[in-house]
Model the fold of this input.
Amino acid sequence: MAQNETPIILDETEQKIINIIDAHRDQIIDFAKDIYTHAELGYKEFRTAEKFANFMKDLGLPIKEHLAVTGVKAYLNEEKKDNVSLALIGELDALRIPEHKYANPETQGAHCCGHHAQLAGVIGAAIALTNPEVKEKLDGQVVLFAVPAEEYGEIEFKNKLTAEGKIKYGGGKCELIRIGAFDDIDLDIVHHIGDKDISVGSNSNNGFVSKVIRYKGVAAHAAGAPHLGVNALNAASLGLSALAYQRETFRDNDHVRIHPIITKGGNLVNVVPDEVVIETLVRAANKDAIADAAAKTDRAFRSGAYAIGAQCQITTMPGYLPALSAEANEEVLTAAQIASQSSKKDYEVVKQDTTAHSGGSTDVGDVQHIQPVLTFNTGGKVSGLHSVDFDIVDDELAYIVTAKIFALSAYRLLKNGAAKAKEVIENYHPIFTKDTYIQYMDSFISESTDL
Ligand SMILES: [Zn+2]
Ligand SMILES: [Zn+2]
Done:
């Protein structure tokens, strides 16, 4: 709290929530650090999910596991679910950044997006909300929800899971929507590590589709008989160049980002490469721009194959919808101010700049299209998200304040007949139903072989 602000007077339950979370400070931080040093990648977060599930079982909560491979839901106040059902969401997955100092050697994963702080916040909130006197004041269900695969990497692995029938969509929340795991939830609160001390509300983000481009050529002796080969790497190089030449056709306002990597470049240096694989995301700020950029991407990659006489197969999968900007919710904002003033340090609470736009993407945007989502960020990090130097340097802010904001927001939304939660739900206008969302997502699925 800033020096010149009037402190908010806490009611008995709010004080109890603060006291409980402070009393369990070490336990929450230990949980966070354990997840931080055992990072796992999307749809492979088995240890992380089990740890979250066991924590919820130890609190005496009924759980559902293995939702979209690794998702876990724990239920508090099941008897009040018909009034309002509020989910507190934490993401399970990490990034592959093997050089990070806390990278998990088994998975090469590192929590450089800080998702472990979300989980620490959710379990910390669960400790407070399961207290019988606190729970009694909640006039609604709280779902403690650990969700898989927010980072959209390893596209070929995800496509393999799809082929095996284990998932249909690459994004964890997208898949959870599809299988109905959001059907018993009315509104959600999500958190992310951010640049400011504490911010409430969200800016808009790009959406995207994913593509795997597979060039097939013909192997031959690279020095002795290259004339007998068809060089798939040359085709891929031309495709990448053709893609780069599309840039001037993208409008600034559409925030188009296309960023391919080569995941397979050849087999042996003295053999003409007969198979080259490229993965890319095609991102933009709106659905039309995504479709336009996706068509240009296909055209560019096909052109490389055409020039060389190779074959080019493009597999397209739906990614995420563009995330919407959202004003700070008053209850979450007050919860943030209380969490700040109850901390030893002077953390600044601000409303997120809703006019800003991020070129990144999140599947939180998909949930936003079917039900209301309230968002907040806490700081406590150094360096940028997804960077090798990312680290948490303020446990209090990243973990403890996060837990307090989750718990206090849930209480403030659900007290007094869940009046404030109902207000949010009544004022929300869905863009998709679950069914129309699935239709939209499925419209992107395609596999083409040209030449
Ligand atoms: Zn991330
Ligand atoms: Zn993230």
Remarks:
- The chain has a mean pLDDT of 95.
